[in-house]
Amino acid sequence: MVCADWDIFHGGTAIEVLDDEACANLVQRLLSITDSWQERHALDDQIHSFHTLGAATYLDTPENYGVVAAAANPVLRDNFGDLLDRVGRAITARTGHPTQLSDDLALPGFHIFRGDHRAPPGLMYGGSVHVDRPHDRHSFPFTIEATLSFTLPIRIPACGAGMHHWSDVPLAMMTGPKAPHAMPPVQREWYDAHKRYFGYTAGAMVLHDGLTVHQLANPGRTRDDEYRISLQGHGVLGDGAWHLFF
């Protein structure tokens, strides 16, 4: 494994990639192609509106992943190729390894959450408690030396946005349901008591190896007219380069 001093959970810092004007322009670009968004229902108790632009290993079945990627990848390249290039250069500058986009997998894509005042903040908001292992579902023609996950926030609600994360999670807490609403009370209480919060800044990309237990988090309630938008992706290191996908 390579030294992960770029990992935000091990001393790394966020990377300023975009200024406020660039973020605003990207949001407008996204809003102009809503026909390409895909509605998602990631959780049984989901209240908020959640869309993606692009395929995602953790959301799409193996049978559907290629279909979604084939439709979305040209849209992402045509509308956001400059952003993907910029992200690749920033990852290279921080980690010391060049990047390339996978020809066979989904390109990094967007998470688009619409605010909803009914959605509970904190542990109960949004995603599952998990680690990132999307590479386990794909084949690569090289030995994987390291893994990478990245988030580039583009639009953040007024209450803020970020991730909860946990270290030294007991094995017993990693079994059973991963969605907080479905966890037994003792498990949910443990995660709530031990959570730490990493806050995002729009335009500042965060990198980690994906293997620290984490969860999408909003520290407060969102308004119905707000968006939480980010570019998301993963990478595997092999043959001297990061191969980026989602």
Structural class category: alpha+beta
Beta-strand percent range = 25-35%
| Total number of strands | 12
Q: What's the CATH H-level superfamily name?
A: q2cbj1_9rhob like domain
Question: Which CATH architecture is right?
Answer: Sandwich
Helix count from the secondary structure assignment = 3
Number of discrete domains:
1
DSSP helix fraction:
10-25%
Whole-number radius of gyration? 17 Å
Please state the average pLDDT score: 92
Pick out the low-confidence regions.
none
H and E string: EHEEHEEEEHEEEEE
Sheet with the most strands?
A: 9 strands, mixed
Explain this structure:
- The structure is a single chain.
- By secondary structure, this protein is of the alpha+beta class.
- The chain has a single domain (about 10-245), classed as Jelly Rolls (Sandwich), CATH 2.60.120.
- Helix content is about 25%, strand content about 25%.
- The protein contains three helices and twelve strands, in the order βαββαββββαβββββ.
- The protein has helices at about 20-30, 60-95, 185-195; strands spanning about 15, 40, 50-55, 100, 110-115, 145-155, 160-165, 195-200, 205-210, 215, 225-240, 240-245.
- Strands 1, 2, 3, 4, 5, 6, 9, 11 and 12 form a nine-stranded mixed β-sheet that branches. It has a three-stranded antiparallel β-sheet with strand order 8-7-10, with no helix packed on it.
- A hairpin with a 2-residue loop joins β11 (about 225-240) and β12 (about 240-245).
- The radius of gyration is 17 Å and the shape is globular.
- About 35% of the residues are buried.
